[in-house]
C-alpha cells in the first residue's frame, strides 16, 4: 500500500532540516536500488545506502552548514559539518540532487505510518563488496525477486552486461574467503574512510590469552574475532544516513593510528604504532596526529566520531561502557570483503533498537538471516 506522509530531511544535531517536499516522490515506500559500491560504503560507514531523488538543490542556508566532498569526477557528497551525517549527493553528469534515505524523518504522530521508507528495487555494484555483503539475504523480499547488478544503471553500457545471477551472488561469501588462513595473532586489519584521512589499524582479537583485553558486553564464541552487529536507533541513523548501521565492538586499546609516525619502544627499540586517542581525551585537537577525525558529543557521555573531510561515520563511544568502541564496519578493508568475516563474528539476527528501524523489510531480513546464512556461509 502506498501512502503519503509528512516528512522532513534531518541530521542528528539539527543543523540540517529541509521540508520533505524537497523529495521528488513523497509516496512511501520509495522504490529504490541499494548501492553497495566502495565509495558509498566508505563515506557512510555502512554496508549499502539508498538515495531518494530531490526536486532541486537544498537551500542556501542548508548549504552553509554542509561540507562538500567530491568522491569521483561526477559525484559530490555533502555531510553535516557539525555531526558528520551524510545528507545529500549531487550527480554533476545528470545535474541531479539526491538525499540519503536514512535522513528521512516521518512525522511521529502520523497515524498512517508506512512500514518502510524504502522498498528495494535492485542491488547495484554487488561485486564491489567481494563477499556479497548483505545482498545474499536480500535476494527475495516479500515475494519480490530483486535484480542483482555488478554496476548501476546510467553508465554507458547495456544493463544486461551488469546482470549477476542470484546463484553467483550466493557463491560470493564462500568464494571470498576461499583457502585464506585466519589472520595471525599479531596481525592488523586496516580501516580507512574513503578519503583515507582516517586510517586505522585494528589488532586481531585475542580474548583467550590476553586477560587484560576487555571482554565486551557479550563475549564472542570465537576468541580471535570481534563481535559485529547492527544498530537501527534514530541517533545512529541520523549520523550515518542509513537505516541500519553495522558496528564492530572493539576494545579501543586494540585500535591504532596508522597516519601517525611510529613510536619507538624504549625497551626493545622496535617501532610500534601509536594507539588511537578516544573519548574525552580526543577533544584535544592534537590528540590524534595525522587523522582527519572530528567528534560530535550527542550527549555529555556519548561521542560520535566522523571524518571531517569525507564525512564517513567512524565510531561511537559511550562513557557508560568506556572499554568498548563501536567501529563502523563500512570503513574496514578486509581482503575477504565488506563484512571482514576473518576478523569479525557477526551476530546474525541481532539488531539493537530493531523496533525503531524505519525500514522494516530490511530489518526483518537481517533478523531472520541466521538460517539463510548458515547454508551458504561458513
Ligand atoms: Zn548535523
Ligand atoms: Zn554507490
Ligand atoms: Zn544506535
Ligand atoms: Zn575521510
UniProtKB/TrEMBL annotation:
The keyword Metal-binding appears for this protein: yes
Listed InterPro entries: CENP-V/GFA, Mss4-like_sf
Pfam families attached to this UniProt entry: GFA
Gene3D superfamilies, per the entry: 2.170.150.70, glutathione-dependent formaldehyde- activating enzyme (gfa) (3.90.1590.10)
Domain of life: Eukaryota
Keywords of the record: Lyase, Metal-binding, Zinc
CENP-V/GFA domain span: 5-131
GO molecular-function terms, A-Z: carbon-sulfur lyase activity; metal ion binding
The family this protein is said to belong to: Belongs to the Gfa family.
Protein name as annotated: CENP-V/GFA domain-containing protein
Organism: Hyaloscypha bicolor E
Amino acid at each position: 500500500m502506498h501512502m503519503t506522509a509528512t516528512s522532513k530531511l534531518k541530521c542528528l544535531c539539527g543543523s540540517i532540516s529541509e521540508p520533505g517536499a524537497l523529495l521528488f516522490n513523497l509516496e512511501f515506500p520509495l522504490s529504490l536500488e541499494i548501492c553497495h559500491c566502495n565509495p558509498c560504503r566508505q563515506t557512510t560507514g555502512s554496508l549499502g545506502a539508498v538515495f531518494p531523488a530531490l526536486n532541486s538543490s537544498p537551500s542556501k542556508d542548508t548549504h552553509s552548514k554542509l561540507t562538500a566532498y567530491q568522491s569521483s569526477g561526477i559525484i559530490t557528497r555533502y555531510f553535516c559539518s557539525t555531526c558528520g551525517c551524510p545528507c545529500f549527493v549531487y550527480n554533476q553528469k545528470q545535474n541531479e540532487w539526491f538525499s540519503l534515505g536514512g535522513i528521512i524523518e516521518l512525522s511521529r504522530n502520523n497515524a498512517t505510518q508506512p512500514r518502510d521508507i524504502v522498498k528495494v528495487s535492485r542491488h547495484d555494484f554487488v561485486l564491489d563488496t567481494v563477499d556479497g555483503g548483505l545482498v545474499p539475504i536480500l535476494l527475495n523480499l516479500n515475494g519480490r525477486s530483486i535484480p542483482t547488478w555488478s554496476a548501476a544503471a546510467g553508465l554507458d553500457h547495456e544493463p544486461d552486461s551488469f546482470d549477476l545471477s542470484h546463484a553467483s551472488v550466493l557463491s560470493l561469501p564462500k568464494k571470498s574467503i576461499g583457502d585464506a588462513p585466519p589472520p595471525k595473532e599479531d596481525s592488523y586489519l586496516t580501516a580507512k574512510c574513503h578519503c583515507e584521512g582516517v586510517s586505522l589499524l585494528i589488532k586481531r582479537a585475542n580474548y583467550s590469552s590476553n586477560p587484560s583485553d576487555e571482554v565486551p558486553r557479550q563475549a564472542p564464541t570465537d576468541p580471535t574475532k570481534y563481535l559485529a552487529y547492527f544498530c537501527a536507533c534514530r541517533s545512529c541513523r541520523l549520523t550515518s544516513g542509513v537505516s541500519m548501521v553495522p558496528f564492530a565492538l572493539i576494545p579501543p586499546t586494540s585500535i591504532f593510528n596508522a597516519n601517525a609516525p611510529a613510536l619507538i619502544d624504549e625497551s626493545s627499540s622496535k617501532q610500534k604504532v601509536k594507539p588511537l586517542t578516544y573519548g574525552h581525551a580526543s577533544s584535544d585537537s592534537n590528540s590524534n596526529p595525522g587523522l582527519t577525525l572530528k567528534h560530535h558529543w550527542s550527549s555529555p557521555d556519548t561521542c560520535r566520531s566522523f571524518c571531517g573531510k569525507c564525512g564517513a561515520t567512524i565510531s561511537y563511544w559511550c562513557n557508560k561502557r568506556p572499554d568498548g568502541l563501536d567501529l563502523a564496519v563500512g570503513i574496514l578493508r578486509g581482503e575477504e570483503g565488506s563484512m571482514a568475516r576473518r576478523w569479525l563474528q557477526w551476530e546474525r539476527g541481532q539488531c539493537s533498537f530493531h523496533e525503531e528501524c524505519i525500514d522494516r523489510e530490511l530489518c526483518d531480513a537481517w533478523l531472520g538471516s541466521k538460517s539463510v546464512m548458515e547454508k551458504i556461509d561458513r
